[in-house]
Write a structure and sequence with these properties.
A: 55 helices, B: 112 residues, three-stranded antiparallel beta sheet, 2 helices, 34% strand
């Protein structure tokens, strides 16, 4: 019990809580009061507070009840539940006329108490709505408990109706609040699954008593209802919606649900009360919610009511108002109407598409089309047209696909009907797309510049939505639309003067054509129409267009129809398009887009473009000299593109060499820009504003690598030659590229000089990962060339380069590209079997070991670079596959394999562990090589046996619970490999590893481990080895339950 | 959806694997019980489904390729597509040799 003095102090604190104060003092008060709310005395305190004259204290009393029930409901005996419910109901009766927030809290608490004891509710309080209403009416607590049915004191249906009819407005409002809360809380997400059926039954059983309350006002004639009752009417709608949705969510069709759904048309009738915003908005919200659950809540009769409503004159007048003044749809009655109209359209799109001849369907389509035609720019001036897009999408989908989502074919049994339907729908969609075409036109700059960034973003999002609709509609409207759009462009550009062109219209047309082009299949009929477009003045006028966006969109369109240019008829137009693309390179905002298409077209259509090489080189030189703000990626792509044209398109070798020499010369100038920038003393501020010298260096190298890639691909052209021709060609190439004093040799030296200068001679670039990466990429480009070429270099050059890079390494993290370069060299030379290649590989391994592995593994584990470790393991695997004797005979074999590769098996880096496991698995699997390698297999055998115990020790460490679960699959692979090829030895090694703890192990654990080894040995690497390893891992961790 | 109605397919994503490893560590250190880990994973199943559905920025992407294999089993569609060309916003393109698409119904069978 709380003494009067104590209570007064508490009440004082509650009052203080609601007064302004410092956050610290309020936090302190909250902590104290929360502690009191959880104390055993809280029940008494709650009752005392609910008797207080202060409304805040009364609210806190109600809140205390909630906290107490939430915290202590487990300890409340069933016998006390009745008392608890009675007390709460009594407080509601007493406070029904007081502030609503207190009544609300008390009602929520009462419902909470009911939810917490669902299994007892059916006996303790089987008819809560009935009793609540009766209690309010009698002003005394009535709680019917069910010992037997005879004990129930229920009102007859008529008496109950009379009782409600006599209710005061206050009682009606309180009852509606209880019904709403009851319905909403029944389906709270945190209600335990097992309690749900009981609560659903309680809800269903209570429907008979809730309905008369909800319908008291809903079933009146709207025009006869006094305006002062509108707030209660709104509560009635909300209660009705809560009840209906709870019933619909919790069960299938039931008599209760049907009786609730039958009232829906009465709700819709209240739309005529347009004078009251709140009533109108609530009714439209109820309608929208019901339409979402239409299969359960909208009966055929209701659907008919809605159809007549939305296709009728009232709806038409509303749409007319919106079209005349789109701002009116931003809020108020018109907004609510529009929400409901659009929801209805989306709900019935399929029905409308199936009954296009019905006047109601036609009316709905006309009204929706009127919304598309609203004047003004979307988003900035109006948001109405945007809202119709979903409807049109659904409409098109319904026409094209049947109920099962299968595309409807014109030749189906119902062919004539479906053809007629498709024809009608095509006409409608052509009109819709035409209207939307007007909507996606870009505004003049003077208007666009005043738009906020958010408006611009939303406008472009709208354009994308329209593009999606055009794409999905295209199956319906077919080439007709393509022709219409192309015709517009041709007419607009027919005068041949840029000033006479409707550029926003042309841009919108190209935008729509781009959307369609993305969905075209190979060799479509539309390509015939595309030819007309390419023959027009468009690409001659576009460079002079004042509208940048038109050029951007044209670039997107070109990119979308690349397959056409790759076809024979399309190749004719490449000389039209590619020069235009090169012209676009001069504009920095277009360069990236243009370069992508150039790269694709040059790679695929090189011979057609060969006559233009000289022009391309001139444009490229200018681009590198003057286009400082052009994206580096564009410069790199263009280098690759021109190289593709030279290598694949130019037939005469001498000219080819001359052009490559010119291109390399241009790139050398680009590289010199990087060196000059690094050498000039540019202050920090200037550097932040412009491209950094190291980025220019990296880009110059990347451009060279792109040229190298093109040279590699060019060699495929000679694959059709006879062996003799190939030999002769190779000799010619050697003369051109390798002979001392030749032009080719000079180009090659120039390339090497750029690589060495940028990556090794400029101190500012030392250790820059991007520079090193791209320098290595240039050298790697030569590995793939089949014969002598500008990028092929001797093994000696590679060894020298790697040796110097390793010697100069400042930061181990930048070593990874060099390691990958060695890996590439090993793979590229694996089929040459020359002494030189073999000794170069051996030398490279030693250099890498001393330069990368030793310093990395000597560093503390925190400073070690995982990329270096992973890269080394991958290189070792390449040696194992291609130069096994080199690996085995290296002086660093023992530290590399016996120590480094073993240690990496238990590092914390997952990718390193995976690489280590792959290496060891590959090593073990070497045993499977053929008899012709018997000598090698014998050596490998010895290595596996010598390292077996220590490697298995690492595996045992991992699978006895120390490795993360995500790496178990990898370790299991290694276990499989050992047990498949070395079963007996593997069993011995694993047993030894598992017996490390020896005498201290419990018998049970020993037995489990022994059984595990036996199981694994029996499986010999077959399934389910992995599952058993995982189970063993779980057991070793002491986890009986596998939670994942 | 309620309770355990969420698919567990995101557990094999990088973030799911990392979470599972982290939970394993916590269990090993006796900081949590496996039952709590189960609860956390089922919360993860729900959250990642909802977040991807509601909050992941919708980047438009279209792709074309050759449908190699498709199947529909237990309300799960699986498509294996070869030579796939992805076209992202701004006509950015990516080419993939082979992709696998696993598509589940957002609502499980029998749910409203």
């Amino acid at each position: 019990m709380v003494s009067q003095t104590e209570y007064e102090l508490i009440e004082q604190k509650v009052k203080q809580l609601y007064l302004p104060g410092s956050p610290d003092s309020i936090n302190q008060l909250q902590r104290e009061l929360q502690s009191l709310q959880r104390s055993p005395a809280a029940w008494d305190l709650a009752n005392l507070m609910l008797s207080s004259p202060d409304q805040n204290v009364r609210f806190f009393g109600a809140l205390t009840y909630t906290v107490k029930i939430n915290n202590d409901w487990h300890s409340i005996p069933t016998t006390s539940v009745h008392q608890l419910l009675s007390q709460l109901l009594n407080w509601i009766i007493l406070h029904r006329s007081g502030p609503r927030f207190i009544t609300q809290k008390l009602i929520a608490t009462l419902v909470l108490a009911l939810i917490k004891f669902p299994s007892d509710a059916s006996t303790i309080w089987p008819y809560p709505i009935h009793d609540f209403i009766l209690s309010l009416s009698q002003l005394s607590v009535v709680i019917n408990t069910r010992s037997t049915d005879a004990d129930l004191n229920l009102q007859s249906e008529t008496d109950f109706a009379v009782l409600i009819a006599s209710f005061s407005r206050e009682n009606l409002d309180t009852s509606l609040l209880f019904c709403s809360t009851f319905a909403e809380e029944m389906l709270r997400a945190d209600v335990p699954r097992q309690d749900r059926p009981l609560l659903q039954k309680l809800l269903a059983d209570s429907t008979q008593h809730a309905l008369p309350i909800m319908t008291t006002l809903i079933c009146t004639t709207p025009s006869e209802l006094a305006p002062d009752l509108y707030p209660v009417l709104t509560s009635s709608f909300k209660c009705y919606r809560a009840w209906a949705l709870s019933l619909a969510t919790s069960s299938g069709m039931s008599p209760e649900l049907s009786s609730v759904a039958a009232i829906f048309p009465r709700v819709v009738a209240f739309l005529e009360l347009e004078s009251d915003d709140t009533v109108f908005s609530t009714v439209s919200e109820v309608m929208i919610d019901f339409m979402e659950w239409s299969d359960k809540l909208v009966t055929a009769q209701s659907m008919n009511t809605l159809l007549h409503l939305f296709a009728g004159p009232w709806s038409a007048s509303k749409i007319q108002q919106i079209v005349a003044d789109p701002d009116s749809a931003e809020d108020g009655i018109n907004l609510y109407f529009l929400n409901a109209f659009i929801s209805f359209g989306e709900l019935t799109a399929r029905d409308i598409s199936g009954s296009l001849s019905l006047s109601e369907s036609q009316r709905i389509l006309e009204l929706t089309l009127a919304l598309v035609k609203v004047a003004g720019y979307p988003i900035e001036d109006e948001t109405v047209s945007k809202r119709t897009l979903e409807f049109w999408d659904l409409f098109v989908e319904s026409v094209l696909y049947d109920d099962d989502g299968v595309l409807q074919q014109a030749g189906d049994s119902a062919a004539s009907a479906s053809k007629e339907k498709a024809a009608q729908a095509t006409t409608i969609m052509m009109t819709v797309i035409e209207s939307l075409w007007h909507k996606i036109r870009l505004p003049p700059t003077n208007i666009f510049s005043h738009w906020s960034q958010d408006t611009r973003d939303q406008f472009f999002a709208f354009r994308k939505d329209v593009a999606d609709l055009i794409e999905s509609s295209y199956q319906l409207v077919q080439p007709k639309l393509y022709s219409v759009l192309v015709d517009f462009v041709i007419q607009s550009t027919s005068s041949g003067t840029p000033d006479a062109v409707d550029w926003p219209g042309v841009e919108a047309s190209l935008y729509a054509l781009n959307a369609i082009s993305q969905s075209l299949t190979s060799s479509p009929v539309e390509y015939e129409t595309l030819k007309i477009l390419l023959d027009s003045n468009l690409f001659h006028l576009l460079p002079q267009s004042p509208m940048l966006r038109a050029k951007q969109t044209s670039l997107n369109l070109i990119s979308s129809v690349i397959p056409y240019f790759q076809s024979d008829p399309g190749k004719t137009y490449i000389p039209v398009v590619v020069p235009y693309l090169f012209q676009c390179l001069a504009t920095s905002s277009l360069a990236l887009h243009a370069s992508r298409s150039i790269f694709q077209l040059c790679a695929d259509c090189a011979p057609v473009l060969a006559p233009n090489v000289q022009d391309f080189l001139a444009i490229y030189r200018d681009m590198l000299v003057n286009g400082h703000d052009i994206d580096a990626l564009a410069k790199e792509r263009i280098a690759g593109a021109i190289a593709e044209v030279i290598v694949q398109g130019v037939e005469e070798l001498e000219r080819k060499v001359a052009y490559i020499g010119e291109l390399v010369g241009i790139l050398k100038v680009y590289a010199e820009q990087a060196v000059a920038a690094a050498n000039s003393k540019v202050d920090q501020q200037q550097q932040e504003d412009s491209i950094l010298p190291k980025d220019i260096a990296a880009s110059a190298l990347k451009s060279l690598a792109m040229v190298g890639k093109a040279c590699r691909e060019g060699e495929d052209l000679i694959s059709t030659h006879t062996p003799e021709q190939k030999r002769a060609y190779a000799e010619t190439l050697a003369q051109v590229w390798d002979a001392p004093g030749s032009r080719g040799r000079a180009i090659k030296d120039e390339i090497l000089s750029v690589v060495v200068t940028l990556s090794q001679r400029v101190p500012d670039f030392a250790g820059e990962i991007a520079v090193r990466q791209n320098a290595c990429a240039v050298l790697r480009a030569g590995f793939s060339e089949r014969g002598p070429g500008p990028f092929t270099v001797s093994a000696e050059v590679i060894v020298g380069y790697v040796r110097e890079e390793v010697a100069r390494v400042g930061n181990l993290a930048t070593m990874q590209p060099v390691i990958a370069l060695v890996g590439g060299f090993v793979v590229a030379n694996s089929d040459k079997e020359s002494e030189d290649a073999s000794s170069a590989c051996a030398e490279l391994l030693d250099v890498l070991y001393s330069g990368a592995v030793v310093p990395n593994t000597c560093a503390s584990s925190a400073l070690q670079d995982p990329d270096v470790n992973q890269g080394m393991l991958e290189v070792m695997q390449k040696y194992l596959a291609r130069y096994t004797p080199v690996l085995f005979s290296s002086y660093c074999f023992e530290p590399l394999v016996g120590r480094f590769a073993v240690e990496m098996l238990t590092t914390r880096e997952p990718l390193v562990v995976k690489a280590a496991v792959k290496f060891w698995t590959a090593l073990i699997n070497t045993k499977m090589r053929g008899a012709d390698e018997a000598e090698l297999v014998a050596v490998v055998d010895q290595v596996v046996q010598a390292t077996g115990e220590v490697v298995m020790g690492k595996v045992v460490w991992a699978i006895t619970g120390n490795a993360p679960r995500s790496l178990l699959t990898e370790y299991a692979q290694l276990v499989k490999a050992y047990f498949r090829l070395y079963t007996g030895l593997a069993q011995r090694w694993m047993s030894a590893g598992l017996a490390v703890e020896g005498e201290q192990q419990q018998e049970e654990k020993k037995r489990a481990r022994r059984m595990f080894v036996e199981k694994i040995a029996r499986l010999r690497g077959r399934p389910p080895t992995e599952t058993i390893v995982k189970e063993f891992w779980l057991g070793e961790r002491g986890q009986e339950v596998d939670f994942a | 959806m309620s309770g355990n109605a969420y698919y567990e397919l995101y557990r094999r994503s990088s973030i799911g694997v990392a979470l599972t490893d982290a939970l394993d560590e916590l269990i090993k250190d006796s900081k949590i019980q496996p039952q709590l880990a189960m609860k956390i994973l089922s919360t993860f199943d729900r959250c990642i489904t909802e977040i991807l559905s509601d909050q992941a920025k919708a980047t438009r992407l279209s792709f074309k390729g050759h449908l190699d294999i498709y199947r529909f089993c237990d309300d799960v569609w699986t498509f294996i597509i070869k030579d796939v060309h992805f076209k992202m916003e701004g006509n950015e393109q990516v080419v993939g040799e082979k992709i696998k698409i696993v598509a589940c119904n957002y609502k499980k069978p029998g749910e409203p």
